[in-house]
Amino acid sequence: MSSRTSPICQPITIRRAVARDAKRLTRLVRGSGAYEGKYASAVAGYRVGPDYIEAHRVFVAVDADEHGGRVLGFYSLVLAPPELDLLFVADEAQGRGIGRLLVAHMQSEARAAGLDRLKVVSHLPAEDFYHRVGAVRIGTALANPPAVPWDRPEFEFRIPSE
């Protein structure tokens, strides 16, 4: 069974990101296979810095290996206006349910913060993922050249109260 489709075998922990995670998160964004080819310009100079981590609710999914945990993915929740700003899963960890775990965690954090909905502007290759995890398409974010020269689907997560 390939690692792309294998279930989660090791325990996964989701924890708050700290400043020392910044370089690993930046590498994850810039190295994402979803941003190859025509999409590469969108992340070429992208940086997830310690200042970003401090200003937003950034959480990382790590496996519990002997080296203190490998970053498998992360997300960033912005409270005002309510938005899922970033969500990435390492290429080698995709297909193992980590994205779903991150979305469930994000919804829990949003609920705890008193949010009843939040939006996400999706990268085109991630559109099906957002449909599968319950986001509802609400529109289109128009291109913003030169950084993002294509239109992107805009979704909303509705956060039910418990």
TrEMBL record:
It holds the Pfam family Acetyltransf_1. Gene3D superfamilies: 3.40.630.30. InterPro entries: Acetyltransferase_Butenolide, Acyl_CoA_acyltransferase, GNAT_dom. GO terms for molecular function: acyltransferase activity, transferring groups other than amino-acyl groups. Residues 12-162 form the N-acetyltransferase domain. CDD domains: NAT_SF. It comes from the Bacteria. Keywords: Transferase. PANTHER family: FAMILY N-ACETYLTRANSFERASE, PUTATIVE (AFU_ORTHOLOGUE AFUA_6G03350)-RELATED. The keyword Transferase applies. Signal peptide: none annotated. It comes from Streptomyces violarus. This is GNAT superfamily N-acetyltransferase.
